[in-house]
Write a structure and sequence with these properties.
- 0% of the residues lie in helices and 48% in strands.
- The chain starts with a strand and ends with a strand.
Length: 127
Amino acid sequence: QVQLVESGGGLVQAGDSLRLSCTASGRSFSSYAMGWFRQAPGKEREFVAGVSGSGVRQYYSDSVKGRFTVSRDNAKNTVYLQMNSLKPEDTAVYYCAADLTPVAWVIRTTPGEYNYWGQGTLVTVSS
């Protein structure tokens, strides 16, 4: 069992930065990969970024590559999503998710492949 709690969302203007945090509890944090997803109103949940269990490997969607950075601090059981140069189209509820399959170096991009989810945090970017 893993519990995930996100924080850091809010209302910002286009071009601003925001950092999301997701703190996990329940199972050895470094043993599983983590992902960030987002869901805008009327749209499906989409992959944003992921990080391997060790933190060495990261993967990004094309829409955020070069603007967002995913990282993790395994000593604090926390994964981060640093979002720079935010655009109105980044507006969505952002979720962190844990992939508990025993291949922590693989970063998956499909929501159904993740086992546990946070409650989500709303990011609104105004133009």
